[in-house]
Design a protein that fits this description.
The longest helix has 6 residues. The relative contact order is 0.05. Strands 9, 10, 11, 12, 13, 14, 15, 16, 17, 18 and 19 form an eleven-stranded mixed β-sheet that branches. The chain contains four helices and 68 strands. The chain is an all-beta fold and 744 residues long.
Length: 744
């Protein structure tokens, strides 16, 4: 994307960082949940070991990119440090040395960035990565590593394969996995050929059987498969195609999104039916109807469907947004990657033009008083867009937005001479220019002319009324993104809101004319709301975490800075109904379909299980906890996960260890696991205390053990039948009136 010239920002702003490997970030590539970095000593300091983005705003990608910075040119490398200038723009910032945790220092005005390598590293060092196939294609259902050999930059392996899933590991010199490489687009391998690859793609699913050579070129990210010797004959074609397609979205009127089966017709997949306006895409399905890929609009020009026609598609593009109403046929051609839409029968007439223009404009920046940038819509008058109000010093630009409020373009100063606004006048504008920097204070009228691309600023001598209000803002209404919830003023000067809530985070906004001026949250470090009551607030405090649900009333007193909470469920909602132990257990390591189910006792879950070594030659295994099981990680990632606070943390046996909650939707690779020496243990997770505990299981047999004060244990299978010598399965162990599920 285009990067404009650098602008100066108000000192002491907050910097947000997101990426795939940003140290201490709560999630990977989540603009709404980035690492928060405060200025200290004139710089913002953070660490990352891969590419990342920085911004002065968080939220959805439009908001994050609106305040983002990128490199202005290349890194200037010294022995241990590298420096670069920054510009306004949303390109990824690539590290000066990949695969190494680097300390970054960004200047307080976000004009420069400095990268410092850890001790023992210099920019002369080269990371010698290797590659290995990893999967089931050698016949092992538990997945195994298959060593590849380097040949002039291409990594190869030749051997006999069977049908199964696989991918490619990128390995650091110490043998640890640096990246997971899999399909970029076509994930079904049914014949020899060349297959596109990417980091974090869809696992390949092979139907090949016989002797083949697998050749991976990291430079071109291509996997070439060639047959060797005699290959078993191709079986008769299955009348059911191995790959299927389905529309998936809201266009049938279901706001929750649903799948719509398409029918194959000479290589083209079709569906005819009645549609309404909504968003959608196309699922790639295997023969078992499991999703293996996602197809959507190839470009922004193809995403808005307002009429019949042909639209270009690509893997993992932008979801289509349709305004069509009536009966239509949707035809998708996987060969040409095109979606063709034709009208069928009677299509409702196009409604009369909405008097509200399809394109609107809004100021977006700090000049209305919100240091974190806020939007204020402009009003149309004779083709020009006008806003009058009180402004303060700060940076800003103009968004063009569609009728749904989505940003279309970003408009700001055309030249450096136009960017500094210190007096009333006319300033030239352009798309993706340089953000304006305003030093004016007081009441002004701002007029934007889209035809002439000019911004006119004039002093306003009249009075500008200020409407003051308060609102809750957070995720307590069940949304992933933070939303503002207006509160109503009472006769006693307090502000209240009553409604159905769910567990989530929130604070209180003070607004003037709908623009946030101040933020109030918990005055205490312990910001959890586990029961109704009164909670002290302070400006810029720690966001409250609500652990209640149901119908509740929130009342905020601006005079006493007190938040009163009434109603809701009296018990915390933090304890799940089910918990499973996942990791190196059983014959199939990290099984999502058959994890170790734990036994619930109040807020505590326990299970006896044998942890195995992660692979041959290692002493340790890995484990964590999930709250759901399923056929694939896509199913499990939709649940909450509980793991270590740091990656591959060695857990201390017989000690309470605090866990980290990785909320539903987190990628598997972003949830940390613990390491532990292989052996038999009793694993316990206590949600009341917020800890995990591992105790050694010292018995080497399956006989019942009786100690002082403890009755002999009895074992039962899952059907309730007593078993004398439990082995090779899951059993219920009963002792001292307690039942615990164990794996033998």
């Amino acid at each position: 994307m285009f990067c404009a010239a650098v602008i100066s920002l108000a000192a002491h702003a907050t910097l947000y960082v997101t990426g795939g490997s940003v140290t201490d970030a709560p999630a990977a590539w989540k603009p709404e949940n980035p690492l928060v970095v405060n200025e200290a000593g004139g710089v913002y300091t953070f660490q990352a070991s891969g590419k990342f983005k920085i911004s002065t705003a968080k939220g959805n990608w439009d908001t994050f990119n609106g305040g983002a910075k990128c490199l202005d040119g290349d890194w200037n490398k010294a022995t241990k440090t590298a420096t670069a200038n920054l510009k306004t723009g949303s390109d990824d910032i690539n590290p000066p040395l990949d695969g190494t945790e680097i300390t970054y220092e960004v200047s307080s005005d976000l004009s420069t960035i400095k990268a410092t390598l850890p001790d023992g590293k210099t920019f002369g060092d080269k990371v010698d990565y290797s590659y290995a196939l990893y999967g089931q294609i050698t016949g092992n259902t538990a997945w195994e590593d298959i060593t590849m050999t380097e040949n002039n930059g291409v990594w190869e392996w030749t051997g006999t394969v069977v049908a199964g899933d696989f991918g490619i590991k990128k390995l650091s010199p110490d043998g640890t996995q640096a990246a997971w490489i899999s399909a970029d687009g076509t994930a079904t391998v049914s014949a020899a050929g060349v297959y596109a690859a990417k980091v974090g793609g869809t696992d390949w699913s092979s139907t090949l059987a016989g002797e083949y050579t697998f050749s991976f070129n990291p430079e071109t990210m291509k996997l070439t498969i060639t047959a060797q010797g005699t290959v078993p004959p191709t079986p008769d074609p299955d009348p059911t195609p191995a790959v299927k397609y389905a529309l998936h979205g809201q266009i049938t009127g279901n706001s929750a999104w649903e799948s719509i089966t398409m029918t194959e017709n000479n290589g083209v997949w079709e569906w005819t039916g009645t549609v309404v306006a909504g968003e959608f895409g196309i699922k790639i399905l295997d023969a078992d109807l499991n999703q293996t890929g996602w197809i959507s609009a190839a470009t922004d020009a193809d995403k808005n469907i307002t009429a019949v026609g042909t639209y270009n598609a690509s893997a993992n593009g932008t979801n289509w947004s349709s305004t069509l109403e009536g009966e239509y046929t949707f035809s998708f051609n996987p060969e040409t990657m095109q979606l063709t839409i034709t009208a069928q029968g009677t299509v409702p007439p196009t409604p009369d033009p909405d008097p509200t223009p399809a394109v609107k404009y809004a100021l977006h920046g700090q000049i209305t008083g919100d240091p974190n940038w806020a939007s204020s819509e402009l009003t149309e008058a004779d083709g020009k867009w006008v806003w009058t109000g009180k402004i303060v010093a700060g940076d800003f630009g103009i968004k063009s937005i569609d009728a749904s409020g989505k940003q279309i373009e970003w408009i700001n100063a055309a030249t450096d001479a136009d960017k500094n606004i210190s007096a009333a006048g006319v300033y030239a504008a352009k798309v993706n220019g340089t953000n304006w920097s305003n030093t004016l204070e007081g009441n002004y009228t701002l007029t934007f002319d889209p035809a002439a691309l000019t911004l006119t600023i004039a002093k306003y001598e009249g009075d500008v009324s200020v409407v003051k209000s308060y609102a809750l803002k957070g995720t307590i209404t069940g949304t992933e993104e933070w939303v503002s919830i207006p509160m109503t003023e009472g006769e006693d000067g307090t502000w209240s809101w009553t409604g159905d809530v769910k567990a989530g985070s929130f604070g209180v906004q003070y607004l003037e004319n709908g623009i946030q001026q101040k933020w109030y949250a918990s005055a205490n470090e312990a910001a959890a709301i586990d029961a109704p009551g009164d909670y002290n607030a302070t400006e810029n405090g720690k966001n409250w975490t609500l652990n209640l649900e149901g119908k509740m009333t929130f009342t905020y007193n601006p005079t006493t800075l007190l938040l009163s909470v009434t109603g809701g469920s009296q018990s915390p909602v933090g304890t799940p109904e089910k918990v499973y132990l996942v990791g190196n257990f059983g014959d199939t390591h990290w099984s999502t379909a058959d994890p170790v189910e734990m036994t619930k006792d109040g807020d505590k879950f326990s299970v006896e299980a044998e942890l195995k070594a992660a692979k041959t030659g290692m002493e340790d295994g890995y484990f964590s906890f999930v709250t759901a099981k399923g056929a694939s990680w896509d199913d499990v990632n939709g649940s909450d996960r509980y793991g270590a606070k740091t990656k591959d943390e060695a857990i201390t046996v017989s000690t309470d260890v605090e866990y980290e909650k990785f909320a539903a939707g987190v990628n598997a690779s972003a949830a940390n696991s613990w390491t532990l020496k292989a052996g038999k243990y009793v694993f316990t997770i206590d949600f009341e205390k917020g800890v995990v505990r591992v105790e050694p299981k010292t018995s080497t047999g399956v006989e019942n053990i009786s100690t002082a004060g403890e009755a002999a244990a009895e074992y039962y299978n899952l059907q309730g039948v007593r078993v004398a010598n439990p082995a090779n399965g899951v059993f219920i162990r009963v002792a001292n009136g307690k039942a615990v599920k164990v794996r033998r």
